[in-house]
Amino acid sequence: MAVAEKGVAERRTAIFNSGKNGHVSPGAFPTPQQVAQAAREITVPSPRQVIAANAERMKNSSEFEQSMVLNMGPQHPSTHGVLRLVVELEGEEVVQLAPDIGFLHTGIEKNMEAKTYQQALVMTERTDYLGPMINNLVYALAVEKLLDCPIPPRAQVGRVLLSELTRMNSYLVWLGTHALDLAAMSVFLYCFREREMLLDIFELVSGARMHTSYIRPGGLAWDFPKEFKETVQLFLNIFPSRIDEYEALLTDNPIWKERTVGVGKLNAVDAIALGASGANLRATGVPYDVRKLFPYSGYENYDFRLITGTEGDTYERYLVRIAEMRESVKIAQQALDNLPDGPYATSDRKIWPPPKEEITYSMESLIHHFKLWTEGFKPPKGDAYVGVESGRGELGCYIVSDGSNKPYRVHFRGPSFINLQALPHMAKGQVIGDLIAMLASLDPVLGEVDR
Amino acid sequence: MGLEEKAGNLGFVTTTLEAAVNWGRTNAMWPLTFGLACCAIEMMAAQASDFDLSRFGMEVNRPSPRQADLMIVAGRVSRKMAPVVRQLYDQMSDPKWVIAMGDCASSAGVFNNYAVVQGVDEIVPVDVYVAGCPPRPESLIHGIIMLHEKVKREKLAPRSKANAIRFDESGRQVDRIGSR
Fold it and tell me: In chain A, what residues touch B112 (CB-CB under 8 Å)?
């Protein structure tokens, strides 16, 4: 493992200068022809193919040059859940590998078809359980697109703020487990210390630590509590210094660099051909961020940089995510400063129930309330797709409505599922020890992979 | 009132073998490093800085089932995962205990569908159920303390319950003396 073709300082400057003032450099996207060519060339084998190929190779090889199939998982501390990797090894070198998924298949999309639009919301956060608010948001946005329902500014800004806090939460778990996989125990403990502060904020607004169900179709579940602003401000004041702390532990750490620099390289063309998104794609130098390119919930009003890397290796993915945490703090600060007063949910009585006190004197409100909680709302026939930037990449939600009070079909574009596809390609020819680092830096959440 | 009163301050205590063994078992219980879904994150949080499971001698997670004596089933068990969970349980050496953490492991929670095992007690005997979706780390710690209380009351007789579920060659369950 050769350390640093390019110095750490140089890389960090490049990342720091990337996307200044929202500027996206032209020509950074590869041409469609290049991508199509790469897509034809890259093959991702299935577990059965790997085992068969190994058996074939064993027949023809001599006694001294033999390969073996190693089974990693589904119970393995470094596979981040229940992923099984079928790895063909020649000595320590990975010849090919195939991820075997489905060990956490929960039937979430199917279950949502049996629930009304409001009830189905609780399923969304159980897919990517590290970014519950963003999952709520993408589903809420898709339903709102079906309903064509305007959202008041307080809810819009609150959604952005909570999304960014969720992104930080998700990145903290990524950093903690990534470092833990490469045997840096203390980073894990520090990351979870800050994560507890974030979970306290989530608990403050929604009453639950992880599965919040706070962002709902039509607005927010209820208004922010009065301690909200100061609690978030306290966290935002502390957090940048804590990021410095993680960086002090890792960025220039020789062991960390030895394990990550040059490991699991992915170039821009291959990354796009494999459908990678999020920090994994941006680390290869492609300036693609849904928040910047297809803004939702008013992201166009915030001043933040689109972070891109250059090398596309594990170390670069680490640097990009660390830089994005700082940008998240910036966005959250702007959102907190500009949090307007006013209603927290839409005033459309067909979508959002009337306030409780109104029910006591208005017959019409009582009827609305009753209809909403017994039947739910009925969006018009049609379909809607909304993509947002989650902690892992482009998270999409596609809903088909048949005009009834339950969705006809819901589908999620799970970024971890598609990012995981890049693993067999980037692991080819690397050593097995580095496989752990690559997998951790791709940051898959198996709940979202299998759904 | 025991022997130590008669013997004076000689620096020893007397107890039953059972109590001594159970005391040892409760204070060095090693969980299997084994997370399934959302609950696994809360389990990690329980072991991290704020909640610190090492107060109960339980910070040493063992990735190998041979060295573990507690299985915390943290999350939903899918039909594809169920044989793996059972195999892991079989590989653990006696004495062994199981905590079903969260609603999914206890009763499948919100997922009443084709994909999820409706409660992990269908495949392994469960000692303690922890409710919540996901349970807070405090709930998990409470469940663990409950388990400790249970272990302290155990007899040294062989734990026959562990092998109560048997399967025939085709993998079908033959009889079941579960914990329910």
Answer: 111
